[in-house]
Write a structure and sequence with these properties.
Elements (H helix, E strand, L loop, with lengths): L29 H19 L3 H14 L4 H13 L3 H13 L4 H14 L3 H8 L10 H13 L3 H14 L4 H13 L3 H14 L4 H13 L3 H14 L4 H13 L3 H14 L4 H13 L3 H14 L4 H13 L3 H14 L4 H13 L3 H8 L10 H13 L3 H14 L4 H14 L3 H14 L2 H13 L3 H14 L5 H12 L3 H14 L4 H13 L3 H14 L4 H13 L3 H14 L5 H12 L3 H14 L4 H13 L3 H14 L5 H12 L3 H14 L4 H13 L3 H14 L5 H12 L3 H14 L3 H13 L3 H14 L4 H13 L3 H14 L4 H13 L5 H11 L4 H13 L3 H14 L4 H13 L3 H13 L7 H13 L2
Length: 933
């Protein structure tokens, strides 16, 4: 019989929670308590009146008098959250937990604070235990749904939101979550429906109104977005997120005075909010005040070096100031976090060109696939790189493509003409004449006017401007496509369709019009018509990449996965240099668990573009998932070579090297990563663990101390120090490190390590007492209870272990580990309930060898060896090399009277040389059976 997980301590996932700190023995004067209570009451009244800043002041005053007041800490944390300061909110809410406040009460607020900071996995970790004790609250389900959504796990997100809405149909967080899912599916209409429902059902819900403003803003509906933020501020005038969102929209609309007023108002309420300084810097940048913008950004990056919007803006500001090296550094840092940002990548390539680094600029541009890009700016930069390398023919090709994409640009035409003059191309004069004419009446200016008017919902004005544009571009489908967009804005679907159809008459291969019409068809439930749009383009141009990808997308929408993969394969075959079809196919196959096929698809992407980082990364991931470690190693080496200044690819390379037991190489790779990014904690912890495995304890200790110096507020360095001492069997030192880590950030993980250190020192009962004390104040912490029960069962304390397992079974019925171990513990106590719990486990997993072994052996012990034979034989067939199971089968055969087969089983078992706990008993039984021959 086996104790599930008893020998897998290092791999056990334990849900994180916090430990209530024992309050010291000093007494507090009654007057002090009364003063604190009065201040807290005043703070609550201020909150009720909407004056959160006054509430914060009173709560801080209360905590100066009574720092250990959990209620005041909780209220302060929740107030910080309402004012848009999630970091301070998290700090205070964790203190409230440490002071003994109920996990159920604090977790929703703490989860929201973590969500606001982008700590999505931490949200799932913190709320995990709430899902193990029965139906979770709508608040918890909403938090988990939003975290799953941010992590790209859309199905998990949808399930969480739907469960929340089943419990509470008008729950705003879940309705907004469904809106976000709709946005991810590009169904803006559904997103607006969910959003409007959230606002209608919860008219005073600030988050719902803020989200509505954000959604309207994303659609370019500037005035409605401003109105939505204004309504939010009517409800809560000091709401900083609403104030900053409105300022951001005002900035985009060029309403600089209004933006400045909102920024200053936000600063008065939340002077430490990074977004206040960021928007001030953006305002200065937009108004050409580059030095002022630089100064603001420097202040932000001193305290928040990883605030990526500020990093990107700093790159743009330094570029404008001519500080090209600083601009390059900022832009590289930004792309390390967001490698797909088009603006950042183009600006970095331009910066490198300005510094005379055309090769670096070319490498920067590779992920944008210049040969097949539909972005005129990418082609212009690629052309300038070619000019710098004196590759004039290639430069002309890129300028020509840019002119085709943006035919109204005088600047592009001029550059094209110049590049052709260098080659002696007779078309140069024509290009320059076109450019000259365009500069007189720039079509580009007309396009920008039209786009601005459509964005601002000035649809009638846009139609007038489109008529002017059409005179300059009478044969282009572009004006008709814009006309269709304007009529869509006016809700005149019939005229919109007519305009888009006319665009396709002018150019049957004009994809934007076909895509817009297909979207209208899908909304009308006419999927067949939508499909025909793209089929018509493919008739005119059989290798049209975007049309093929659109056909694939339609197939996936209709859940025709076979057609989806078929279209991707066709697109890849027809466009051998395009990587999008291969990448989409590889991602799909990986998600389906078809790792070997994913490798083939990713390999095709690399063949198409051998140096593309995205393709290399996906190939390495697929190979690693397929356990093709040798090839994964080669691929990640190539990825690291393509990104020579980035640390993250080296983490993946080291992961493969560790899996291949190439300890020395892994160590070198991790050291390289840390040379690029000395405070990359993932690399530090990976290297520290590697040093412990290699018994290089002094090196591991150095890393632990380094982490402690770099991140004094993090327990990670102390935990690594404790792990190092534990591996050395220096239990007092390990205990001291774990105690400090636990004090810094109380959690079950550090508490369990404390127990391990105490157990190593022979102080088992002391460690178990600490765990029991924790569980007394955290009765729902299933992970810690399971760990304690396993320790007790290992020590033979079956009664105490069974009590914990019984409680775990009540809190989380149907857990396989709990049922199996509970059955074992009860059987040792001769408790008749043991067989019932083993039977429940077997029903959950009828073919699990461990469960079969437990069930069969319990039948034997209960005097039913004949019934025990079948499950034990099945267990042996599933796990033929597990000696303990074979021993149980042999003993059961003997008890059932089949001595011949029992003897054969024992002889085979003992001849194997595998040690097992009942080996001596098996030897004695064999002697008895042999004596009876």
């Amino acid at each position: 019989m086996h104790n599930f997980g008893s020998n897998m301590q290092a791999n056990r996932l334990v849900m994180l929670s916090t430990l209530a700190v024992l309050i010291g023995g000093g007494t507090i004067a009654c007057s002090k308590i009364e003063n604190t209570q009065a201040l807290v009451s005043q703070a609550k009244q201020f909150q009720k009146n909407g004056d959160n800043q006054a509430a914060i002041i009173q709560l801080k005053n209360a905590l100066q008098k009574t720092p250990d007041d959990a209620e005041a800490r909780y209220l302060l944390g929740m107030t910080y959250q309402e004012t848009g300061d999630p970091a301070s909110a998290e700090k205070e809410l964790r203190k409230a937990l440490a002071l003994g406040m109920s996990h159920d009460k604090v977790t929703p607020g703490l989860g929201k604070a973590l969500l606001m900071q982008g700590q999505f996995q931490n949200v799932l970790d913190e709320t995990g235990q709430a899902t193990t004790k029965g139906p979770a609250s709508p608040e918890i389900l909403g938090l988990r749904g939003n975290a799953y959504l941010a992590l790209g796990k859309h199905q998990d997100a949808k399930l969480s939101f739907e469960q929340a809405l089943q419990a509470r149909a008008d729950f705003a967080d879940a309705l907004l979550g469904m809106a976000r899912l709709a946005i991810a599916d590009k169904d803006i209409e559904a997103a607006m429906r969910f959003t409007d429902l959230a606002v209608d059902k919860n008219p005073k819900n600030i988050d719902a109104r803020l989200f509505k403003g954000d959604l309207l803003r994303a659609q370019g509906k500037i005035e409605p977005a401003l109105d939505a933020y204004g309504e939010t501020l009517k409800i809560m005038p000091e709401n900083t997120p609403a104030r900053l969102s409105r300022a951001s929209v005002e900035l985009a609309a060029g309403k600089f005075d209004a933006a400045r007023a909102d920024i200053e108002a936000a600063r008065s309420k939340a002077p430490k909010n990074l977004m206040v300084d960021y928007l001030q810097a953006l305002l200065d940048f937009r108004q050409g005040k580059h030095a002022a913008a630089r100064d603001s950004l420097q202040q932000i990056l001193r305290v928040a070096p990883n605030h990526m919007p500020s990093v990107l803006l700093a790159g743009a500001v330094q570029f404008s100031l001519g500080s090209l090296q600083q601009a390059e550094q900022h832009l590289k840092n930004y792309l390390g976090k967001d490698p797909n940002n088009l603006y950042a990548r183009k600006l970095l390539a331009t910066t490198q060109l300005r510094q005379g680094q055309p090769d670096d600029a070319a490498r920067t541009l590779v992920p944008l696939d210049p040969e097949h890009s539909n972005d005129a700016g990418v082609h212009v930069i690629a052309a300038e790189i070619a000019l710098a390398k004196k590759q004039f023919a290639q430069a002309s090709e890129h300028f020509e493509k840019a002119a085709q994409i943006n035919p109204s640009s005088a600047a592009i035409r001029t550059e094209l003409g110049l590049s052709r003059i260098v080659q002696g191309d007779k078309r140069a004069l024509a290009d320059l004449q076109i450019a000259s004419g365009l500069e007189g009446e720039s079509g580009r200016a007309d396009i920008l006017i039209v786009l601005s008017q459509i964005k601002n919902q000035q649809y009638d004005a846009a139609l007038t401007s489109i008529a002017v544009l059409e005179k300059k571009m009478p044969q282009s489908p572009l004006p008709w496509n814009y006309r269709g967009a304007a009529y869509l804005g006016k809700k005149d679907i019939a005229k919109a369709r007519d305009s888009l159809e006319h665009a396709l008459k002018l150019d049957p291969k004009f994809f934007p019009a076909a895509a817009n019409l297909a979207q209208l068809d899908l909304k009308d439930g006419q999927a067949t018509n939508a499909r025909k749009r793209f089929e018509d383009i493919l008739k005119a141009e059989p290798k049209h990449l975007l049309a093929m990808l659109a056909m694939a997308d339609l197939s996936l929408r209709q859940k025709d996965e076979k057609a989806y993969t078929s279209w991707l394969e066709k697109a890849a075959s027809a466009n051998p240099q395009a990587i999008q079809p291969h990448l989409l196919l590889a991602h799909y196959l990986l998600a389906k668990g078809e790792n070997a096929k994913a490798v083939l698809a990713a390999r095709e992407a690399v063949n198409a573009q051998p140096k593309n980082p995205a393709a290399l990364d996906l190939l390495g991931t697929s190979q690693f998932a397929s356990k093709d470690l040798g090839n994964a190693l080669d691929t990640y080496r190539k990825l690291a070579d393509q990104l020579p200044n980035q640390a993250e690819p080296r983490l993946k390379l080291a992961q493969v090297q560790i899996a291949m037991k190439q300890t020395g190489d892994a160590r070198k790779t991790l050291q390289e990563a840390l040379g690029m990014k000395p405070d990359l904690i993932e690399a530090q912890l990976m290297l520290g663990g590697l040093e412990i495995q290699s018994a290089r304890y002094d090196e591991a200790q150095k890393i632990a101390k380094q982490i402690q110096q770099q991140k004094p507020a993090s327990p990670a360095g102390l935990v690594l120090e404790g792990d190092t001492a534990l591996a050395r069997k220096q239990y007092p030192a390990a205990l001291a490190a774990f105690e400090r880590a636990h004090k810094l950030s109380p959690s079950p993980a550090t508490l369990i390590r404390l127990h391990q250190a105490l157990a190593g020192a022979g102080r088992f009962e002391e460690g178990e007492k600490q765990l029991a004390t924790w569980l007394a104040s955290h009765p729902q912490d299933g992970g810690t209870r399971l760990y304690l029960a396993e320790r007790l069962i290992t020590r033979g304390a079956f009664k105490a272990a069974s009590e914990h397992y019984l409680l775990l079974n009540q809190q989380n019925p149907g857990n396989l580990v709990v049922l199996n171990n509970l059955a074992w513990a009860l059987s040792e106590l001769k408790d008749s309930r043991a067989l019932s719990f083993a039977d429940q486990a077997l029903k959950l997993q009828p073919n699990n060898p461990t469960i079969l072994d437990t069930y069969g052996w319990l039948l034997t012990q209960s005097g039913q060896p004949a019934k025990g034979l079948d499950p034990l034989r099945r267990a042996v067939s599933q796990a033929p090399d597990v000696a303990e199971i074979r021993w149980h089968l042999a003993a059961t055969l003997a008890k059932s009277g089949d001595t011949a087969h029992a003897r054969q089983e024992l002889e085979r078992l003992l001849a194997s040389g595998v040690a097992f706990p009942h080996e001596k008993e098996a030897q004695n039984m064999l002697k008895q059976l042999q004596g009876g021959k």
